[in-house]
């Protein structure tokens, strides 16, 4: 009996733990159903016009999460008001009330046929997703028209300045913790992170740069292996990719092939390219982690030489590591996130590189083509591809 109650209690704990996890889960995609209001009926005898049905809009607002919509409207159905009928004492029916669904910035609105209806990229961006029916009048035999209905997918891409890209267990979450005040889950097994974590780096002059720690990628991620491209999409909106690579390499399972740090870099490049070629032209930085482990310094020197070699002779890369285009790293920085070694330098370089690319973009827009030199710490940074 005692055992049974103990078992029940354990199950209970497990249940509450699970429901807690589910409740707090970050969501980046949501299907909703929208229905605009029907137009009101006209009044033929007096030529009265029915009111127009209300429209449904989606509008981006800062500080709103998709989860808010899901929690507030659990059935995920949205309906605008109907137009009023024309009456003897109110010959023009009142229009139905419009409905505006608040949504996070960075949202893509997709129709049920997969067509992108809008990208809401800044606060206040707004899209009409269902138009209200026209009110009844002489042109339509005084019967109000139905409002449009649509099933929509709301797809959220996080907006962060920096996106951490790496194989599982490389130390991405540990690095996010070292760079910011975020406290992501860290553990010595692959796929510890299953939903993105966001952190903000604060500089002395109060400048803030946000960093997104994403679930680890594995070979075939673009084909949806592992966590798949469900999370690769979040890189599209980042300003800087930070490859996070374990100097000791990576092995997913005992039966999987071992991948050295060098191979990891090229495989990550491939995954990005196969998902979306544009990703490989983004500004990027390479952080080599776990520099406190055995022989790390020696391995790092060798890695730099190999990278430089393949930069010169990319055709010599084995076929399985080749890509059409290689990410151009602005810097490569060895770190140890657990002991906070080189973290301040990394923070500085992140800032400089982001600003450098903003300046280039601005000068290109202005029609100038000025070369801007990035200050570099010669010892720790090398220009790769
Ligand atoms: N020795 C050493 N261990 C590290 C360092 N950084 C991270 N680790 C360890 O590596 C393991 C994986 O770290 P995580 O930060 O969870 O790795 P991750 O890349 O976020 O992994 P996923 O979320 O599974 O993709 C943990 O045991 C960390 O303590 C480091 O600089 N040195
Ligand atoms: Mg992690």
UniProtKB/TrEMBL annotation:
Every OBG-type G domain range: 160-355
Q: Does the keyword GTP-binding apply?
A: yes
Q: What is a single Pfam family found in this protein's UniProt entry?
A: MMR_HSR1
Q: Which residues form the Obg domain?
A: 24-159
Keywords, ordered alphabetically: GTP-binding, Nucleotide-binding
> Under which name does UniProt file this protein?
GTP-binding protein 10-like
* Source organism per UniProt: Limulus polyphemus
This protein's encoding gene: LOC106478393
């Amino acid at each position: 009996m005692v055992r049974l109650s103990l078992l029940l209690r354990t199950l209970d704990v497990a249940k509450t733990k699970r429901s807690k996890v589910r409740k707090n889960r970050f969501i980046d995609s949501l299907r909703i159903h929208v229905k605009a209001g029907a137009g009101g009926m006209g009044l033929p005898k007096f030529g009265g016009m029915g009111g127009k049905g209300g429209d449904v809009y989606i509008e981006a607002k800062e500080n709103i999460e998709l989860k808010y919509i899901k929690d507030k409207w659990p059935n995920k159905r949205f309906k605008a008001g109907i137009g009023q009928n024309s009456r003897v004492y109110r010959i023009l029916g009142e229009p139905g009330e419009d409905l505006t669904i608040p949504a996070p910035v960075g949202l893509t609105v997709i129709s049920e046929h997969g067509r992108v209806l809008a990208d809401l990229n800044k606060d206040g961006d707004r899209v009409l997703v269902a138009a209200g029916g026209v009110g009844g009048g002489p042109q339509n035999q005084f019967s109000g028209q139905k409002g449009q209905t649509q099933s929509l997918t709301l797809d959220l891409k996080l907006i962060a300045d920096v996106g951490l890209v790496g194989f599982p267990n490389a130390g991405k979450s540990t690095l996010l913790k070292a760079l910011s005040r975020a406290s992501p889950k860290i553990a010595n097994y692959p796929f510890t992170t299953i939903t993105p974590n966001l952190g903000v780096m604060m500089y002395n002059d109060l400048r803030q740069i946000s960093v997104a720690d994403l679930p680890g990628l594995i070979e075939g991620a673009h084909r949806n292996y592992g966590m798949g491209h469900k999370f690769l999409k979040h890189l599209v909106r980042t300003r800087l990719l930070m490859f996070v690579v374990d100097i000791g390499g990576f092995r997913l399972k005992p039966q999987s092939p071992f991948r050295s740090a060098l191979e990891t870099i090229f495989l990550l490049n491939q995954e990005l390219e196969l998902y979306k070629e544009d990703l490989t032209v983004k500004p990027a930085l390479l952080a080599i982690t776990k520099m406190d482990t055995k022989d790390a310094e020696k391995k790092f020197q060798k890695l730099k030489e190999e990278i430089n070699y393949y930069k010169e002779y990319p055709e010599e890369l084995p076929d399985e590591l080749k890509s059409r285009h290689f990410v151009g790293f602005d810097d490569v920085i060895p770190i140890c996130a657990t002991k906070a070694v080189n973290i301040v330098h990394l923070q500085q370089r992140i800032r400089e590189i982001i600003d450098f690319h903003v300046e280039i973009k601005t000068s290109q827009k202005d029609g100038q083509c000025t070369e801007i030199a990035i200050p570099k710490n010669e010892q720790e940074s090398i220009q790769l591809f």
